[in-house]
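Task: fold both queries, return tokens.
Query 1:
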Amino acid sequence: MNRAALADFLRRRREALRPSDVGLVPGPRRRTPGLRREEVAGLTGMSVDYYTRLEQQRGPQPSEQMLAALARALRLTADERDHLHRLAGHGVPRRTPLDSHVAPALLRVLDRLEDCPALIINSLGETLVANRLAITIFGDRSQLTGWARSDAYRWFTDPASRSIYPTVDHDRQARSLVASLRAAYGMAGDSSRAGELVRILLAGSTEFRTLWDRHEVSRRFEDHKTLLHPEVGEIEVDCQALFTEDQSQALLVLTPTPGSEAEEKIRLLAVLGSEHFAEPSS
């Protein structure tokens, strides 16, 4: 672990960012350039004292999970993320089509979306990051662990996960999830995490086996969705997807028709926030 270089790198990357770059309001009387230490700490979920000690060359070696959080908070590119790991004395994460490092370009767009639900997922349907409105509707899926992070895994192993969609849409959603997983499988290969997930679902779900045998392949998301919230009921939205160049991650933006009842419901959720409602099953 190169403490001096790590501290300098973190400080320079922090000072190179503006609050607006990470979705924060600048606020008055900012005497230093870039983000404050407490802002970086808040974005990563670590204590201010812990982050401060890293910049002062006296902190413990950060874990790989902590480095991943720092890379996301500081909007590091994949090359910068790898450099951060080397400075901290860790091996460089393997770059695969299912790399969980969030593309900074998608994060910059997400940071500016405040009035509509938006989330970034990888090709296994794992939520990497979501804005407040998306968490209000779907729950905080980024906190799930193991295979439960995958939309496809939850759909075919946990019936409660389907409650976010009307029953009439379940068949279409199941086909979409399988077609998307087959696209990820074809891109990443049989020995990848996608291949492992396919084997798990083939062994555990008759429905999945039937749909997998259809050989449908698609990365396209449905343009229109009806979502169910336990307090406000049905929310009809259009879904737009912005993919990274390698198609490994997508920013999903859910927008209601202007002036519609769905728009009013989303405004209500934005005002009341996720803490007011019971979290939906997901």
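Query 1 returned. Query 2:
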Amino acid sequence: MNTKTLISGIVAGIVAFFAGFLIYGIIMDNYFTSAMPTYPGLMKDPGDIWAIGVGSVIWGILLAWLLNSAGVVTAARGATYAAIAFFLYALGSCFIVFGQMNMFPIEGIFIDALCSAIMMAAAGAVAGWMLGRPVKN
């Protein structure tokens, strides 16, 4: 992995973090809060924001590496690739979790996958744009 890809990934991760806050923490908060079962100790209050940030940056780096490997160098293609990849990733992960736990109803699988796709499309647009920029000497 080259420096340009790494930097693109870190920036994409930061975008994913803030997009996730907007989507999951504000827009969809009521849905996910009401759809999930509750019991003492399940949710951290407050959550460990540093861990969410680290995870977002790791996702951003993974995304930038995938986009670079696919030769993506535009914001539009970055957004499209990221939306498809993370929709499928979230869909698969949510079905596995649904099969193992009582965390959310079946429609929550599709809602979460759609939210993930939107969140990572924003990150993919930034990563694709950054990957297409010329390297300054």
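Both queries returned. Flag for query 2: The CA atoms of residues 71 and 110 lie 29 Å apart.
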